[in-house]
Write a structure and sequence with these properties.
By secondary structure, the chain is α/β, with parallel strands linked by helices. The protein is built from ten helices and ten strands. Helix 3 runs antiparallel to helix 4. The model has no long low-confidence stretch (mean pLDDT 94).
């Protein structure tokens, strides 16, 4: 598939979810390298992919890393030993993919018998955590917010139900009521971006759920690979939030429609962040960035 086709599939959400976006974009660049693309051609392909969706930092992080590898190999070996570069890129992609089961193994330990879990959107990471908890023999229930306007909650409810997990779909506006009346014990969400100060961007509605969870004294657990930590900005509030086509919400003659796709949950509302490297408080996001990206405020 061409770079343009992958970018189009990311923009149209045929390929969606921050981790899958990162894997798809890296694989598209891998194909370009196999086809013999030069560094300027890779940079052009990267620009096309990077522009596909603005709010998931996993996309620029993955692209920039593949570009960095290509530039590094080009410098040490002009004309490029493609086999060495391709081995590095394949290794990066398999690390991205491996981060999912690794994280699931860690996150599943947080799920206890009798838990009632609420989630929003369709995070492959949250799904894997819950499947692993089920495989560990834990007996728990899930409520899945339907996630208007694109109904990703339907995917979540279907995938969890197929995995034998007791799952109930609710409308987004039933989140508070469900937490109050159905004994919800934990809220698990994915992430598109984690900022250095611990703020998290995820599907629109996540911050509302977080407010309710805090009000009810529940832990909000963010499940996210470190590829979603942003080296670009300190504060979540500074990030460009993707606004999508109003038609996704509806089409009512003469009525204006606003359709933001993501929101920012401030770190005060986050109990912990589960990564493939372990569990951290949101305040430790800066240290992850420093270790993984050599990021520094100095
Ligand atoms: C997806 C979304 C997911 C995160 C994490 O939004 O907000 O919670 O991307 O997903 P969209 P994952 O449907 O608009 O892409 O854990 O799979 O990376």
């Amino acid at each position: 598939m061409s770079v343009e086709e992958i970018a189009q599939k990311i923009a149209s959400m045929e390929i969606r979810g921050a981790l899958r976006i990162a894997v798809a974009a890296s694989s598209a660049l891998e194909e370009e390298i196999i086809d013999g693309a030069s560094i300027p051609e890779l940079i052009k392909a990267s620009d096309i992919l990077r522009d596909a969706r603005p709010s998931a930092v996993s996309l620029p992080n993955a692209i920039n890393y593949v570009l960095y590898l290509a530039q590094k190999h080009e410098e040490s070996d002009p004309g490029m030993a493609r086999s060495l570069l391709l081995a590095d890129v394949a290794n990066f992609i398999s690390k991205l993919e491996d981060s999912l089961p690794k994280l699931a193994g860690i996150g599943a330990n947080l799920i206890a018998d009798g838990d009632v879990i609420l989630t929003i959107c369709n995070s492959s990471t949250v799904i894997e955590v819950l499947k692993q908890a089920k495989a560990n023999g834990k007996d728990f229930k899930v409520f899945a917010c339907e996630t208007r306007p694109r109904w990703q909650g339907h995917l979540t409810a279907t995938q969890l139900t197929k995995a034998g997990i007791d799952t109930t779909l609710i409308v987004d506006s039933a989140a508070h009521y469900t937490i109050q009346h159905k004994g919800v014990t934990k809220v698990l969400v994915g992430a598109d971006t984690v900022y250095a100060n611990g703020d998290v961007i995820n599907k629109i509605g996540t911050s509302q759920v977080a407010l309710v969870a805090k009000h009810m004294g529940l832990d909000l657990i963010v499940c996210t690979q470190t590829i979603k930590f942003s080296p670009f900005s300190v504060l979540g509030s500074l990030v460009q939030i993707e606004e999508r086509d109003p038609e996704e919400v509806g089409n009512i003659e003469g009525v204006k429609i606003f359709n933001p796709a993501f929101d920012v949950t401030s770190k005060e509302y986050i109990g912990m962040i589960v990564t493939e490297d372990g569990i951290i408080p949101p305040e430790a996001a800066y240290h992850v960035l420093k270790e993984k990206f050599g990021w520094s405020m100095e």
